[in-house]
Amino acid sequence: MAIADRKAKEKEQLKTLILNSARKLFVQNGVEQTTIRSIAKNIDYSVGTVYLYFKDKNAILNELHSLGFAQLGEQFKVLANVEKPMERLMAMGRLYINFAMENPDMYELMFTLKAPMAVLNESKKEEWDEGKSAFGVLKTTVEQCINQHHFEGHKAEPLTFMIWGLVHGMCSLQISDRAKAVHFENEDQIVSAGYEEFLKILKKL
Amino acid sequence: MAIADRKAKEKEQLKTLILNSARKLFVQNGVEQTTIRSIAKNIDYSVGTVYLYFKDKNAILNELHSLGFAQLGEQFKVLANVEKPMERLMAMGRLYINFAMENPDMYELMFTLKAPMAVLNESKKEEWDEGKSAFGVLKTTVEQCINQHHFEGHKAEPLTFMIWGLVHGMCSLQISDRAKAVHFENEDQIVSAGYEEFLKILKKL
DNA sequence: CAAATATAATGAACATTGTTCATTATATGA
DNA sequence: TCATATAATGAACAATGTTCATTATATTTG
Prior knowledge:
Two copies of one chain form a homodimer. The first copy, chain A, is an all-alpha fold. The first copy, chain A, has two domains: 1-54, Orthogonal Bundle (Arc Repressor Mutant, subunit A); 58-204, Tetracycline Repressor, domain 2, CATH 1.10.357. The first copy, chain A, contains eleven helices and no strands. The first copy, chain A, has helices at 2-33, 36-42, 47-53, 57-76, 85-102, 104-111, 115-122, 129-147, 156-175, 178-182, 190-204. In chain A, helix 4 (57-76) packs across helix 7. The N and C termini of chain A lie far apart (62 Å). Chains A and B meet through helix 7, helix 8, helix 9, helix 10 and helix 11 of A and helix 7, helix 8, helix 9, helix 10 and helix 11 of B. The structure holds a DNA duplex.
């Protein structure tokens, strides 16, 4: 059935086209401004067509959300070269912060907006694989640190969550304009500066 | 001009009525579901009337946002009884987390949603007083800790931001369903558990 | 090849939002 | 009592997500 194959490929292509358009507009203009109509217009298709390929707007956001994790995962690959777990942990935080600061809208979609998570809640079976796997990478590193006798007396999982929360929190405050509003001496460096303080602490543990 | 006074009082009362209604609906149903129409209907006034008292929906959110800070400030008052800065710092984090877990929608409004911040951006002169003052309280405590020779080699402001980020981050991940999606052993205790790990670290510094 | 069928695409139409503003009602002052 | 100022109304508008009957295109069949 060569024809069916080709059709499947075409469908896949159009889906990708929609997704790429959505991503472009989304990164340019944010979630709210990225309307189904604007996506459709951007690729010269009708509104209805978009709905043939995606159940609703949340479904699109959910796929972009996955793309974001792929992108972050790509950047995390260099960490494989860092042998010492403690150094790897520190480098991971830096990469995470860099990603957040350079892709604030994508970051928001990945870690703040509820919309992409709503999709998972509907189909209850499905779990948040990207999240679990990303968290797993961090947790493994923390466990390796513990094996090397760092973090004396700590429990791996809550500690890992705390570290995630620490970097996420600073990024989140920055992206949501809360850090700016507080008026730091060096506004756009405050996240890095905060992370440096954390590193000082890490080196004592 | 007793009449003018009474009129001013009436205006103030209606404004408060709108605000209370908005808060009730907001805490019950979240931001999106709290429509101007639902607020108006709830107090038996017309849509237009709401707009006589508030410029737009963001203005309402911004006032709720302020009420949230008043509420949190109220809970922080007990901290005045904690003499030792280090203990006060630890208690502050706990109060912050409790507030976030018990008032997730309010917390989101205060520290995540961009809408209430948009009001500040319009009238550029106005700064985020509540934010600055809340951060100031935390920063002062951290400085007092430093004066008592804790946090050797740390800079007060970035360190304070880091600590804020730490508690905010965990709360934020929990409220945005990211923590849940990762499936911890003890899901609803993960924020507290994470904070406990932080306290262990604090005690070493 | 032509007709019948299946697949894909369309865009008008609906419901729901925030928001505006001409109109109506009410209260105040002359 | 009437003129004026103030307050309240709700219909109407634009923008959005979403649906679905209709149209267009492609595929299969006789």
